[in-house]
Amino acid sequence: MKKFYRLILRDMHLVIKGSSDAGAALLFYLLAIIMFPLSSGTDTNLLTSIAGGAIWVAALFSSLLSLDRLFRSDFEDGSLEQLVLSGISLETIVLSKCFAHWLTNGLPIVILSPILAMIIGLDISYWWVLCSTLLLGTPSLTLIGATPAALSCAIGKGGVLTALIILPLMLPVLILGSGAITAEILGLGGSGHIYALAAILPLSLFVVPFLASKALRLGWE
Amino acid sequence: MQNIFNFLANPSRFRVFSEKSYPYALFMMIILISVGLWYSLFNSPPDYQQGETVRIMYVHVPAAWMAMMVYLSMTIMSLFALVWRHPLADILSKCSAPIGASFTLIALVTGSIWGKPTWGTWWVWDARLTSVFILFLIYMGHITLVRSFEDEYKGARAGAILTLIGAFNLPIIKFSVDWWNTLHQPASVIKLDGPTIHIDMMIPLILMALGFLFFYFSFLLINVQTELNNRKLKKLFIQNFSKNN
Fold it and tell me: Who has the most CB within 10 Å: A165, B38, B158, B209?
């Protein structure tokens, strides 16, 4: 457990030092949300109805962009290999990397979302739906994307290919997350969607460490 | 059961097995699909509400079943490849993906053609249509990933890993029409309390489904043969190259 904390601290330290692009991904999140009122007009009613979806799409793209580099820099400079050689199981490393990614990408998105929801015109009474779906959904996004990110290390090239593989896998989370907000606005109650999101999170938490470490080992073969 | 898996684990033995069983699978497919087509086009009643349009069902429903069945079999084979390191399971899984993608595309296109006269629209974003479309995208992502590896052994293993991650979409597709009230009708054949479809429509549907199943088998066998031959060719090429130099 102590090793787990140390690994997370190491990743956070790298982010603070600026050698990772976590800050850029957050900035992208802000920019992507601003695109929606700029492109689809400033009609308040329209913006209110698409606000949940807009925030979710921006969150998805932001985590997609930063996921490509989840393992890549450590994989390429060999520090991931050194960590495994030092006796820490690869599954633990994968989990700690995912957790650090969520702390630097998912958590700021959740914290920023109420402010952005206000800018884009989501009614104040739906904030709890937005925040709870994002809180349950962003870790799932990180975990689901971790395996394709590890696979892209094994290929040796990333970019469009990683996005192509990750996006369809993330779509159910996006549908459930934005669907909860829409259902709540329509008065149908979004708790069903939230329960489904809450089911995806432990499922992926259980499966992903094994599959992602398989993928990383494939890259070392 | 264990013996069968061990027996077929040897690639050259599997090739002999597949070369022997391929004509039978092809024969079954041709017989079942031609009989099934005759039944579904000429010897089954038109629907009381949809009229003759209902005949699209005999292609649409088996294709949609197969789209999910192929992914399920890919998932099981990927599990075999990763857990027990079965040397042929990842090839089988890899070779299934293009067939599954074609079935998904057939299901999407026929569904859209069927939707126009009955629902009045080509496409709606309801739960089942969306999740089948996502399945198609996952298939395409799988094919792209496998092709992007230079080493085909690694590519097949990577495909197996990706298949397992995408597998959680399968229950969403199966139960989407039961969980959400949408335009697409709920299941009427595979149900716990027996099918609610008339026997005259059931017979051609089952025949077509079996025909599609044998279509999958025969194309899977020939795809695997091609893959094994390609690998052997590459090995022979390297052997000759090192001998001559």
Answer: B158
Q: Looking at the whole model, is its pTM more than 0.90?
A: no
CB–CB of B162 and A168 under 8 A? no
Residue with tokens 């052994």: B153
Beta-bridge partners for B47: B51
Question: Is B2 a domain residue?
Answer: no
- The answer to whether residue A171 neighbours chain B at the CB level (below 8 Å) is yes
* B156 interfaces chain A, CB cutoff of 8 Å: no
Residue in chain B lying closest to A165 (CA): B141
What is the rounded CA–CA span in Å between residue B77 and residue B95?
11
- Integer Cα distance of B173 and B140 in angstroms: 17
Q: Which among A141, A152, A164, A165 is the top mutation candidate for probing chain B, defined by the most B β-carbons within 10 Å of its own β-carbon?
A: A165
**Interchain CB contacts (distance < 8 Å): A and B:** 68
List, in order, residues 6 or more apart from B157 with CB less than 8 Å away. A218, B81, B82, B90
Contacts (Cβ under 8 Å, ≥6 apart) of B2: none
The parent domain of residue A179 ranges over 2-220
Residue A216 tokens read as: 């990383």
- Complex prediction ipTM: 0.84
Distance from CA of A38 to the nearest CA of B (A): 25
pLDDT tens for residues B69-126? 999 999 999 998 888 888 888 889 999 999 999 999 999 999 888 888 888 888 877 7
Q: Which residues of B touch A168 (CB under 8 A)?
A: 134, 137-138, 141, 166
Indicate the number of domains in chain B.
1
